Fold:
Amino acid sequence: MKNGHLGPVELCKDYNSRSWTEELIGAMENRNATSITRSSAYLFHTAAEYHRHYVLKRLLPAHQVIVA
Structure:
C-alpha cells in the first residue's frame, strides 16, 4: 500500500467460454467430482449464486429493500 499497490498483481485470464465449457464437459464425462468442482465454470456459477443470495437476502433487506 505504501508503494501504491494493494497486494500482488496478477493478470486475469482472458475469458473464453469455449474453454470453460470444454473443461466442464471433460470433467463430467470422466465423472470426476474433484475436477468438476475445481473447473472455472463451476467456480464461477458457485460465486454468482453466493453473490445473488447475499444481495437479495442480506444487503438489500438491510436497507429496507425487499425483492420478491
Summary: The chain has a mean pLDDT of 87.
